[in-house]
Amino acid sequence: MAHVSAVERRPQLIKAAIDLMTRKGVAAGSTRAIAAELGVAQATVHYTFGTKEDLYAAVMAQITEDLVAQLAAAAPAGGGFEETLAALAGELWRSMAEPATNHQLLTELTMYALRTPRLTEARESHYRQMLGVTTELLTATAERTGFALTEPAEVVARFFLAGFDGLTMQRLSLPDGDAERVGLRALVAATVALAGGRLALTDVRLD
């Protein structure tokens, strides 16, 4: 059998871990199970990553990278401030609602990381990146459209992401499609109002 370097094996193991834990949850993600998912020896996981926590950190980094790219691409070209916020909310919601996007797995890993000191940096890095891309998009949109922010863009981004996190937990715990649509519209309206605009409910595209 041809030797596969750790550099080549790394993305394979990350994908195997994501596939396994998306189906079965974080609790099922032992190094033995992840190795079996890929069809390699358990020692391969430890040789490539060192520990299970190191692999989990790499999984969180990969999912975050994908999500940040989705958000950056979601902002409509030439869209207004409110339209851009609605587009970001819709993209985040579609990502959260579709199992294949791994957003739920990222939520589970974040909760796991709260009790796992070795994953503190991975957890904080995820939020810093999400906050960063949202802040950048809001700043760029405000500058391009002449929207006068009455609060710093980072404050507005934090408010928006905090509200979305709350809606995510409601969806995962007690789904209600109609209430979720109203909640997303209210989140966009409240964020625009905080940023300096008028309070008005704007439809959020979810398809």
UniProtKB/TrEMBL annotation:
Keywords: DNA-binding, Transcription, Transcription regulation. Pfam families: TetR_N. Residues 30-49 bind DNA. SUPFAM superfamilies: Homeodomain-like, Tetracyclin repressor-like, C-terminal domain. It comes from the Bacteria. Residues 7-67 form the HTH tetR-type domain. This is TetR/AcrR family transcriptional regulator. It comes from Nocardia xishanensis. The lineage of its organism: Bacteria, Bacillati, Actinomycetota, Actinomycetes, Mycobacteriales.
